[in-house]
Amino acid sequence: MATGGGGGGGVRLPRNSGPCGRFSERRTGRQSFGYPPHHTSVSTQLNGQKDVKNKRGNQITIESLPLEVLLQTFSYLDTCSLLCAGCVCKRFYRVSNDNLIWYGLYSNCFKFKGKLWKPKAVESVTESFSTISIQDKPAGHWKRAFIQKCIGVGRRGVEQLLKPINHFTGLPSKLKEAVRALEVTWKIVLQDRTGREHSLEQSKVFLSDTSATLYWYSALWPPLDSLKTLCLYGVTPFWNCRLRALSLLFEYELTHLENSSTYMRCDKLVRLQCLHPSILLGLWQDGRELAFIVANLHFHQLIEKSTLGSTICQYSPPSHEPVLDDIDPEYGLHGYYLHITLHSGQSCYMSGSFRSLFCKKGKNNYLFQRIPHLSSKKESQHSTISGKLCLPWNTEFLSGKHCCFMDVTVLDEAEKPFWCVSSPVAVYESSTSATRYDYLGKSQTIDYSDSEGRVHMNLMWLEEERQYYLVNLVLYLSTEKVNSWFATKY
């Protein structure tokens, strides 16, 4: 868990009124803290200032202070000051991870309640807890336990907000309220080849029913050729203080951008490159430097991913345990639900859902399903898409034409999220389109694919009506994903 500057709400923490554990008794008289008293003295006054030196002639610095002095001092700090002190230097970091200090904070802040645990019982247990048993834990154990406990306390009310499900999208219906309650924001950190980090808070955020779209603008981006990695973090306020907790969502390599990204679209000013699955880079055509960055994050487990990870590790969800079924010979091939949305972050172009989908064995290790409600031969089943597909980023005059964001949510027969993804997609003219006499327009396609699934859409653009028609939609699911999810062997 890492921290940065900021503010927020949460648990009101007691200030450390005094040292804890083995430092609970104040020392009186001259103390040497393990060093003989004759090792130190005060030198003569030079130029009106006292120069404190030991008899060996070395000036006393933080590095030369005995460990006992630092532990005694740190035991008086409150929680926020203790976390800040750990960012000063390596030695302060090691001292600020002392298990005895954090165990005292933990036991003082989170007292057990119930018939078996009373305040007196807690005090007796704390007193009987030997110093050796506390220090047997790895360094920082009680610090991590303290932080995780505080995060859990802050999430208690939010978990209730995540329970109601929107039956149209298959996602939590009050996720926007949960994001606001936790005061979650997102930031990007660009690291150059020298190790220097450039951090930027979100400029804008738009929350739809299925995803969050984040924008970052800056006039002083670091040179693109000097960048090594791009990290996206969820940021959560850490109690009523200036600290914040970071949770890693994605990390992308920028060293070989042409190989690690996909070209989307361009105009006279901006070229769009996609870092799969969720990041869109806007590069100036003149010089190929950064113009803006956009992220599109699917709502599925977004709260967990943005709060329960660390600065170096992503949140790892619990592994799915398949429910076995020996009766149904086509178990795992039917009962799917698809919700798909095309949007620009600020406005929605198309939103539709399809129930009772079933799969057939396809090629290239995919089980595919053609959406029965969208037959290319039945014009009455075709649906319209509002307006032109584009991605406005700062002004309506600068926008990426023929591209948008796609949110895909696939639920299994038990209405559990099976495949969820949000990603930028581009519209391309179809190279193998057959002649259609019912539409006098251009045939275009939208494709997205990853290791778990694929979506293929056929669109018809009618110039007279200035809008798209969705005439065909095919959903592909990975055979490996299906077998892993349902414990089958297709």
Question: Can you walk through the features of this model?
Answer:
The chain is of the alpha+beta class and 490 residues long. The protein has 3 domains: 153 residues, no CATH class; 143 residues, no CATH class; 151 residues, no CATH class. It is 19% helix and 37% strand. Strands 18, 19, 20, 25, 26, 27 and 28 form a 7-stranded antiparallel β-sheet that branches. Strands 8-9-15-14-13-12 form a 6-stranded antiparallel β-sheet. A hairpin with a 2-residue loop joins strand 2 and strand 3. Helix 4 runs parallel beside helix 7. The longest helix has 14 residues. The radius of gyration is 29 Å and the shape is globular.
Key phrases:
globular, alpha+beta, 28 strands, disordered N terminus, F-box protein 15, single chain, 490 residues, 19% helix, F-box-like_dom_sf, 6-stranded antiparallel beta sheet
Q: What is the element layout, followed by pairings?
A:
Elements: E1 2-5, E2 40-46, E3 49-54, H1 67-74, H2 79-85, H3 90-96, H4 99-109, H5 119-128, H6 131-135, H7 141-154, H8 156-161, E4 165-166, E5 171-172, H9 175-182, E6 185-192, E7 197-201, E8 204-207, E9 211-217, E10 227-237, E11 243-253, H10 257-260, E12 262-266, E13 270-275, E14 279-284, E15 290-298, H11 302-307, E16 336-343, E17 348-357, E18 360-361, E19 366-370, E20 383-385, E21 390-395, E22 398-401, E23 403-411, E24 417-426, E25 428-429, E26 442-449, E27 453-462, E28 467-478, H12 479-486
